[in-house]
Amino acid sequence: MFVYLVAVSSIAMTWDLSPLPPFRFSRPRDVGVTLYLLLVASWFAMQLPIQVLAPVFFADPAGAVVGKYFSRNHPKLNPAWYQKKSVLGSLAVFLFTFATISYPVTLGARLCLAGLALLAEALGGDYDNLALAAVVLGGWVLAAQ
Are residues 86 and 99 in the same domain? Predict the structure, then answer.
């Protein structure tokens, strides 16, 4: 119930249906955040292993934190490489995805998934979390075969 309460209240905040202010990292009526929350709630409802989603929980936020920190404090070390995506922020997405894939895959597959996650997060725009989730879940499905 806790997960569903968090998802519903967060969606309400995102769509200005709550007395609480929206998240700093989202825009009003942010479809990407809404779909991400629905994905997580659905995953729990289907009782699928939550550790499979670990890269989604850690990689994108790590990219944002690392990217913003280095852009603010050491901008010469962290140039943008695609639109607003920075080199070190994207490297953090790669490393956190690599480190948090919990299903059994070869080293080569892990490197490939981390690279695809980096690209998905960069190219995904408003849907970067869903694009990253698609990579991770696609790898999980392929690993199970």
Answer: yes
CA–CA distances in Å: residue 35 to residues 78, 96, 117: 30, 22, 18
- Identity at 31, one-letter amino acid code: V
* Listed residue (128, 103, 105) closest to 117, CA to CA: 128
Asked whether the beta carbons of 36 and 136 are under 8 A apart, the reply is no
Residues 27 and 67 in one domain: no
Tens of pLDDT, residue by residue over 47-95, are 999 999 999 989 988 998 999 999 999 999 999 999 989 999 999 999 9
pTM across the whole model = 0.86
Please, are residues 26 and 14 in contact by the beta-carbon 8 Å criterion? yes
